[in-house]
Amino acid sequence: MTTIEDYGKYETAWCPGCGNFGILNALKQALVNCDLPPHRVLLVSGIGQAAKAPHYLRANVFNGLHGRSLPAAIGARLANPELTVIAESGDGCLYGEGGNHFLAALRRNLDLTILAHDNRVYGLTKGQASPTSQQGMVTKTQPHGAFPPPFNPLAVAVTMGASFVARGYAGKLEQLSELISKAIKHRGTALVDILQPCVSFNKINTFQWYQEHCYELPPEHDPTDRDQALRVALEFGENLPLGIIYQTQRPLFEEQFTPLKHGPLARQEVSRPKLEEIMQQYR
Amino acid sequence: MSQDIQILIGGEAGQGLVTIGQLLAKALVRSGREIFTSQSYHSRIRGGHNTFALRVGPAPLAASRDNIDILVALNAETVELHQAQLTQRALIIADANTAPNTAGAIPVPFAQLGPEKLWNTAALALLGQILGLPTEPLQQAVDEMFGHKQAEVLAENRKVMKKSREWAGQHVPEHPFTLADRSTGAAKRLLLTGNQAIALGALAGGLKFCAFYPMTPATSIVIELISHADTMGCIVEQAEDEIAAINMAIGASYAGAPAMVATSGGGFALMVEGVSLAAMTETPVLVVVGQRPGPATGMPTCTEQADLEFVLHAGHGEFPRAILAPGSIEECWSLTARALGLTEHTQSPVFLLTDQFLADSSRPVTPFDGDTVTPVRAGSDPQKVVPPYRRYYLTPDGLSPRLLPGLSEHLVVADSDEHNEEGHLSEDYGLRKAMVEKRLGKLELLKRQALAPTLNGARGAELLLVCWGSSLGPVRETAEILRGQGQEVATLHFSQVWPLVPEQFLDILQAAGQVVCIEGNATGQFARLIRRETGFAIDRRINRYDGLPFTAGYLLEHLEKSAAA
Ligand SMILES: Cc1ncc(C[n+]2csc(CCOP(=O)(O)OP(=O)(O)O)c2C)c(N)n1
Ligand code: SF4
């Protein structure tokens, strides 16, 4: 049995009151819910406040480059399919710098969980607009207000045929850890976009604001119905639905690679006789 | 002069000229001949002017010749473009409708010999007749190629082969091109391009993961890998871009799969941040850079050696690296396997620097001896670790135990930020200094394992030709020709261009009469590197940067020019 203590306790570098704390606690709870021992878990992140989260719990960690958590996570997952791989980063990291990787990861559908700490701002670099910033948000680098409408990660994910698409909120711990557990258990790439108040730089989307604008998806919502899911995902203004928006079964990317039928690549020997046979093809 | 024969097959892309060349190459190698082939093509799928050059002779060959003895012209343009390169004795094989009205031209009534789709076979048969090569090995190569098709196709091919051979017997004039007796009976030899050899070397060396984004001339390495990936237990993934490719390879390597990426300069430019990541996280990764002319997209299908400085300095911050540059098809194999071992052993990025010339050239080689390679294994033994496990444990030689995540109860924390011994990010100035020193300390390890350059000829020779990477073949041939003319010439070839260990070669440079550095770039990057590292100034240089590879002909001409200057 894995307990919450197994995941340790660390000092963090986050601002007091930051939404990241809730996400971290929900993640630990989810790992315990899934009864995963720390050494089976690999957390991969990019760079940003959110991307520091893997440092604040006990697990295997690969903290790579800004925007590049997904390719690194994919490489690791392909090398060792026995690892439970979770990619964790901010909205700037995942949807901005890493946008191309985000699209490609959803299309591939490896068994992988993506946790987007979506504070709708660049936290670590002190408050510039991010791809999900509300239109008109004024910042030091967007003095006239963010011009483009916000990137809608969930609508994009549903359209790309992602196999698990959900929205959580850092202020609703129990529901969030439940969503993360389901995402981890889902066979395929699971995206959980997590609404995260940034108390230092996002003065629009505050805890108060989310309290007023979030609502739980009703039980009638059928996450297997893609059209319905897309309609819900497109609700991205004054009302933000929470819960599993879309879930489907698609073949797993890793299943196409025969070498993975034999477990982690690190455990596989190089066959001399096979190599000799291959060389004969060049005679 | 030379007893070898240079054949050039030219035509449009899509006319099947490479097939003719490859089948002929196969038949010649199997009948014990020494050959060298190279290709020139343009960045288009159909049309354009492409060539396949095949040189055949009694002794091993490592470069093409500039002039042509037998020109197979699949269109009229080929004759026009190569007229000036024809030797006095040259033959031109061309369709009766397009053949020029000059001496040596053999107008072939292809339409009479077979249907258009089999004119390849006809051309092959004609070449066989001219070279005095028996039908049997040619027929066998053709049969193998079409073996999977219906019997009628095979029969039709045989018919065309026979008819063409007979026609040639009656119509090809007396000429001096019949092959000398076979030089070696080594029927076991393999016919490999540089890129095929790189792929085989990687698999032999224990490669388990490769990610790539297609870019000439590196793509054919990956295609070769893919064809053997399932058999050898290797995963090859086409990434969404080069940035993803290198990050995937690093992620895979972190998790235990010996990994590489293969690209060219433009793609490597995108990978550069990943190079720093590998260095900082101390994750092994092999980066194969197949050079072609830049900047930017440059000349996609041509060759150059101009990315040495780029690869040498790629990545921000300070960290050590090794750069190996194969000079031959054999080295493509052996250095790739070596580089994989080196990257794991030093937990640092290692580069293999090759180019289009080597990538697309082929030559017969004796099968590699598997006994000379121990496939690399990722990570160290978790049993030997005294807890608590620390990924970046500060050791005197800079190498910390590299465990793999998930394969033991130890937790493996890797970080691109500066980190403490556990792998967690740290902003401690003292620790930062210790970690920088730990990483830089690996330079000593790399130097201890550095390959010495190869001297061919006498120390203290009148003329010393210095070169690196793919220029080896043409440079050696040049030296042989000059020796034949009574000159005292030696060559010094670097198949490791970084780190350089001056004790391995400085005295050779100092002892030589005249030192000439030969490299495929405009500014003399390697000559400059030697000067920076040793203080030795190489004052004579021959640089080629028109997109074409060196040949002995080019070098002899320019050696004379630069001597006169
Ligand atoms: C290649 C690169 N570009 C820029 C940066 C600087 N940078 C660090 S974090 C960050 C944005 C972080 O925003 P987000 O991903 O939303 O995470 P948050 O800090 O808000 O949690 C930027 C631009 C970097 N580290 N690397
Ligand atoms: S800047 Fe914002 S996101 Fe970063 S720790 Fe502070 S509150 Fe959290």
TrEMBL record, chain A:
Query: Listed GO molecular functions?
Result: 2-oxoglutarate synthase activity; iron-sulfur cluster binding; metal ion binding; thiamine pyrophosphate binding
Keyword vocabulary terms for this entry: Iron, Iron-sulfur, Magnesium, Metal-binding, Oxidoreductase, Pyruvate, Thiamine pyrophosphate
Position of the signal peptide: none
Cofactor(s) it depends on: [4Fe-4S] cluster; thiamine diphosphate; Mg(2+)
Do the record's keywords include Metal-binding?
yes
A GO BP term here is: small molecule metabolic process
Q: Which CDD domains match?
A: TPP_OGFOR
Ranges where the Pyruvate ferredoxin oxidoreductase beta subunit C-terminal domain occurs: 198-261
User: Per the UniProt record, which EC number(s) apply here?
Assistant: 1.2.7.3
- Which residue windows are transmembrane per the record? none
Checking Gene3D superfamilies in the record gives: 3.40.50.970
- Enumerate the Pfam families for this protein: PFO_beta_C (PF12367), TPP_enzyme_C (PF02775)
Annotated Thiamine pyrophosphate enzyme TPP-binding domain ranges read: 51-194
* Family matches, as InterPro entries: 2-oxoacid:Fd_oxidoreductase, OFOB, PFO_beta_C, THDP-binding, TPP_enzyme_TPP-bd
The record's listing under NCBIfam families reads: PorB_KorB (TIGR02177)
PANTHER family from the entry? 2-OXOGLUTARATE OXIDOREDUCTASE SUBUNIT KORB, 2-OXOGLUTARATE OXIDOREDUCTASE SUBUNIT KORB-RELATED
Its name, as the record gives it, is Pyruvate ferredoxin/flavodoxin oxidoreductase, beta subunit
TrEMBL record, chain B:
A molecular function GO annotation: oxidoreductase activity, acting on the aldehyde or oxo group of donors
**One of the GO BP terms on file:** response to oxidative stress
Q: Which residues form the Pyruvate/ketoisovalerate oxidoreductase catalytic domain?
A: 13-164
Q: Which InterPro entries match?
A: 2-oxoacid/accept_OxRdtase_asu, Pyruvate:ferred/Flavod_OxRd, Pyrv/ketoisovalerate_OxRed_cat, Pyrv_Fd/Flavodoxin_OxRdtase_N, Pyrv_flavodox_OxRed_cen, THDP-binding, Transketo_C/PFOR_II
Q: Sorted alphabetically, which keywords does the UniProt record give?
A: Oxidoreductase, Pyruvate
> Which residues are in the Pyruvate flavodoxin/ferredoxin oxidoreductase pyrimidine binding domain?
201-428
Which NCBIfam families does the entry link to?
OAFO_sf
Protein name per UniProt? Pyruvate flavodoxin/ferredoxin oxidoreductase domain protein
Q: What is the lineage of its organism?
A: Bacteria, Pseudomonadati, Thermodesulfobacteriota, Desulfobulbia, Desulfobulbales
